[in-house]
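Quick start: what a row looks like.
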Amino acid sequence: MGDEYWFEEGCWITELSNSADDPALSIARARLPSGGTTRWHRLHGVIERYVILSGRGVVEVGDQPPREVGEGDMVYISAMQAQRIHNPGPDDLLFLALCTPRFTPEAYEDIDPERRADHDED
């Protein structure tokens, strides 16, 4: 297991399995602190599944209405679907992110309107 690191999406990540030797799947543990919200983003060519380990969250995927999730829930996110998750609870939200094929940073696209506004000013 790798060390936990901050990812630009807005959460802490620990890579459990992500190797070019096993390109079909990656597994990461994500930790979203209390009050945190990830940035709106999408993954190119990658299907993602969140499996909630502990805590509670509100997930937004595509045009679906926001949905509360908790321990044991699974969220399916098709490739290219806009997504973000918020932690309204008092404790860290922990979840697995299972990606097929495996996640690579090149697949990640930040589509948060706040960031786009920042770039429009450049």
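That is the whole record. The radius of gyration is 14 Å. The chain has one domain: 5-120.
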